[in-house]
Amino acid sequence: LEHKNTPIQDRLMAMTSVQQLATNPAYHLQNLMQPTMVAVPRLAADFKDYAGAWRHLLAGYKIAGLTGVRNIDVSKVQNLKLRETLQKIQDAGLLDVGMDEDLNQFTRTRSGFEKLDQASGLAQKLIHKLRQISRMVEATNRISTATAAYNMAIEKGKTHEQAQQYAIEVVSDTQGDFSRTDAPLIIKKLPKVVTQYRKFQLMMMAHYT
Questions:
Q1: Which of 84, 79, 40, 81 shows the shortest CA–CA distance to 63?
Q2: Nearest 10 degrees: CA dihedral of 202, 11, 22, 58?
Q3: Which of 46, 60, 62, 57 is nearest to 162 (CA)?
Q4: Are 137 and 46 within 8 A, CB to CB?
């Protein structure tokens, strides 16, 4: 659990995230479609009900709109057991994630040169806006997926505890747990700039396998 500060690598990773993800329309489109590409097939396979998976995901998007994805507030969910489940997933750090960790490392440069500092300030504001877009899409994906998984499990006869655990697993498997503690040992040992984006690929390979 020891954390080693790597400011140079963190700054390089933030710049790469901005270039390859935040400013890339294809990334935002793929990110937006992740529940339909990964979560729906998972639910459909687990419960042998493709139409039901779509129905519950669409209902999940309504819950995501209700809770708000800029500042998530699960207290607005009327179903108390679903609210408890979403709160548990949020406490685990699985509702509000994305490129935050990388992009937070891109802090404003204060060099003493006015023009350079102004440019750094503008870049920081732009990156903040892009980060908000990514965060909102990620939150929408995760809330809708968790809601669909929980409600579908309940509909298929699972207990509250079973449905809650199933929702946690589905969110983690289909949307990803990007915490460092959940990374494979090889990713923790290798330099960050070498393993950037590799964890998502490994997760998807494991999920489809």
A1: 79
A2: 50
A3: 46
A4: no
State the Rg of the chain over Cα: 19
Residues 6+ apart with CB under 8 A from 176: 97, 199, 200, 203
Using CA atoms, how far apart are residues 178 and 200, in angstroms rounded to an integer?
8
Residues belonging to the chain? 209
Span 81-108, pLDDT tens digits: 999 999 999 998 888 775 454 455 455 5
How far apart CA 187 and CA 43 sit, in angstroms, is 29
Spatial separation of the C-alpha atoms in residues 11 and 206, rounded to whole Å: 29
Rounded to the nearest 5 degrees, what angle is found at the Cα of 91, between the Cα atoms of 85 and 92?
Answer: 95
Q: Please, which contacts does 179-183 make with residues 24 or more away whose CB atoms are closer than 8 Å?
A: 179/93, 180/3, 181/1
Per-residue model confidence as pLDDT tens digits over 20-51:
777 788 888 888 999 999 999 999 999 999 99
In angstroms, the CA 150 to CA 81 distance is: 9
Task: List, for residues 111-154, the tens digit of each pLDDT value.
Answer: 667 777 777 777 777 777 777 788 889 899 999 999 999 999 99
CB atoms within 10 A of CB 118: 10
Say how many C-beta atoms besides its own lie within 10 A of residue 124's C-beta: 14
